[in-house]
Amino acid sequence: MYQRTKRLVNLKVLVVVEDDQSSLISQALNTTAHTHPISSMAGWEIKTGVPESEIVKEVHHHKYWGAIYVSSDDLSSNLISSFSDGSFYNTTNVVRAYYETGRDPNGMNQYIIPAISKFSFLYQSILEHKVYPELLANVSDSNLVNLRDNGMLTSYPTISITDASPLKEPVLMAPLMVGLIYIIILTFFQVLWFMKLNADAAKVLNPKSYLVYRALILQCNFLILSLAYTALNSAFQISYNASWSGGFGVAWMTHYLTMSAVGGANENISLLCFGILPPLMGFWMLSFVVLNVSATFSPIEVCPKIFRFTHAMPIKNAYEISKIIYFNSYRGHLGRYFGVLIAWVAVNMILHPLCLMFFSMRTKKKIQKAAQAGAAEKEAKEQKN
Question: Using alpha carbons only, what angle is made at residue 39 by residues 130 and 153, rounded to the nearest 5 degrees?
Fold first, then answer.
C-alpha cells in the first residue's frame, strides 16, 4: 500500500479520439485526461485511428485496463452541423467506455471503475460549460428554437459504459479471496491430522516403502480435500462453466494443484521445523500466508516493484486461473499459471524424501541423546545409592 496513489498511472487506460485531435469532442476528452486529479487516477494513453474491434481485443488481452473511445470519426463535425442547421443528432452511445471486471474484480472496483466514472463526470461538465456554449454562440434564433424543441440542448454525447465481464454474484469473491487463504490453512492442518498415522506406519514399513507411502498419502489427501473444497463452492450455487462446459473438473484440478503446491511446502517445512525447533512452524505459517497474499489481490502495477515476486507464488497463479474459470477472462497466460503450480508440486515432491530423511536423522539423534541422558541419570542415581 505504500505510496500506492503515485503508481495508479501504471494502470493504463486507452483513450481513442478522432483523427483530428483539435475537434471539439477530442479536445474535451484530451482535456479531461490531463486535468487533475483525473490525470493521476490512471495512465490515460491518447491514441487515434484504433477500430472498436481492436480496442476490445486490446482490453481483453490485458494490454489496457479499460478504454474510452469515440465510435465515429465524424462525431464533432456531425455535432457542429446539427447546431448549425438546428437538426437533431442522436448522441446516444457515440462515446463509449469498455472494461472487464473479471480481469481483477478487486482492482477494477477499487481503481479503474471509479477513475472512468470520474472521467465521465468531468468530461460531461466540460461539454456542458464549455463546448455547448461555444456551439450556441453562433446559432440563429430560429435554429435555437428547433434545438430546444428537439432536445439537442440537453443531449450531450455522454460516455456509455460496457462491462463485458461483470461480477454478477458477489459470492464469487469468497473463493477468489479468503477461499485461497483457507487452502493454505487446510493443507497445514492435514500435517497435524496425519502425524499419528504416519508415525504408526513408520514402525511397520521399511524406509523405501515408507517414502512411497508418504508421497502417495500426501497427494491423496490433497485430491480429496480439493474435491471437498470445490464441491462446497458448488453448494453455494457458484458456477464453474463460464469458460469450459466441464469447468468443475478444471476447478477441481486447479484446487488440487494449489493444495499440492502450498501443502507440499508446508509438509516439507514442517519436517524441517519439527526436526530442529517445532515452534518455528508457526513463524513459517505466518510468513507463508503473508508472502502469498500480500500482493495477490491487488494489481501488481500499483505495488512496489519488489512485490513482483508474487508472480512466482502459488496462490497468485491459482487466483489468476480462478478468474478465468469464473469470468472467462483472457487465457493467453494460462500455461504460465499452471506451469508455476506444477513447478511447485515437482520441487516439493523432489525435496520431500530429503526432508523426511533429515527429520528421521534428527529424531534418532534426539532419541539417542535422551537415552544417553536417561542412562547417565540412572547411573548417577545408582552411584548415589
Answer: 20
- The domains of the chain, with CATH numbers, are 4-163 (3.40.190), 170-371 (no CATH)
SS3 helix, strand, coil % of the chain, rounded to 5? 70, 5, 25
Give the global pTM: 0.89
Render pLDDT for 96-120 as a digit per residue (tens, 0 to 9).
999 999 999 999 999 999 999 999 9
Q: From CA 336, how far away is CA 332, in angstroms rounded?
A: 9
Q: pLDDT tens digits for 238-283?
A: 999 988 888 999 999 999 999 999 999 999 999 999 889 988 988 9
Query: Residue 155 — φ and ψ, nearest 5°?
Result: -100, 85
* Backbone phi, psi, residue 45, to 5°: -115, 110
Q: Which three cell numbers stand for residue 192?
A: 497435524
Nearest-angstrom CA–CA distance, 226 and 187? 10
Beta strands across the sheet bearing 159-163: 43-48, 12-17, 66-70, 95-99, 159-163
